Amino acid sequence: MNDQENAKKYAGEASVNFIENGMKIGLGSGSTVYWMIRKLGEYVQKGLDITGIPSSHQTEAWAKQFSIPLTDFTQTQKLDIAIDGADEVDRQWNLIKGGGGALVREKVIAAAADRFIVIVDESKMVTNLGTFPLPVEILPFGWEVTSSRIASLSGKPVIRTNPDHDIVVSDNGNFIVDCDFGAIYDPKTLNHQLKQLTGVVDTGLFIQMADDVIVGYPDRTEIQS
Ligand code: 5RP
């Protein structure tokens, strides 16, 4: 395993220490979350009684692989904790998320949780957001119009495609545009402006939603609360 993967593993596994018996847990998405789910599966095997709501089809598959009991929002509308990765974390703990395309479900889950824990390797900690292009989920209908309205906010949107050049469809049946806004100095205002555009479902900007950030390094973790 390389240093970055080790750092992800440290961060993901450390987050499981925040989980207590009886909790309802929001399960984020991505490769750092994979390590959290794997470790959580070990605790479940030893008798930890929890249920999780997955934020993506991939996470659901991993949760099933590691025998984590799942539930959904028809059964419960409140989560004790949500644990998720991020593509960038700034100094005010604003996030860019959505590199894996699960930003909308991830945001619904984070908003439903009493405590939102972010797990990242050290490379994700930045001074200003924006080096990572901002994912924005948009409706397929009229996506070209929505995309050009995002461009008028100086976002340089690029429709997300797979290696075969097919447009990627999110778990919600929508499209994602990855937008280069340059350095984002006022993420709250940008999030608001984007959400006001008809056709935008949600953005990958998570504005001060995080309660704790667990930063993984190749040989340790640092917990910021
Ligand atoms: C998926 C996400 C992920 O949490 C984000 O892309 C980080 O992924 P990884 O842990 O693989 O670096 O937002 O939509």
UniProtKB/TrEMBL annotation:
It comes from Lentibacillus halodurans. Belongs to the ribose 5-phosphate isomerase family. It catalyses: aldehydo-D-ribose 5-phosphate = D-ribulose 5-phosphate. One of its GO terms (cellular component) is cytosol. Substrate binds at S29, G30, S31, T32, D84, G85, A86, D87, K97, G98, G99, G100, K124. It is an enzyme of class 5 (isomerase). Pfam families: Rib_5-P_isom_A. Keywords: Isomerase. This is Ribose-5-phosphate isomerase A. Catalyzes the reversible conversion of ribose-5-phosphate to ribulose 5-phosphate. The active site is at E106. Gene3D superfamilies: 3.30.70.260, 3.40.50.1360. InterPro entries: NagB/RpiA_transferase-like (IPR037171), Ribose5P_isomerase_typA_subgr (IPR020672), Ribose5P_isomerase_type_A (IPR004788). GO terms for molecular function: ribose-5-phosphate isomerase activity. Pathway: Carbohydrate degradation; pentose phosphate pathway; D-ribose 5-phosphate from D-ribulose 5-phosphate (non-oxidative stage): step 1/1. Homodimer. GO terms for biological process: D-ribose metabolic process; pentose-phosphate shunt, non-oxidative branch. CDD domains: RPI_A (cd01398). Its EC number is 5.3.1.6. The gene is rpiA.
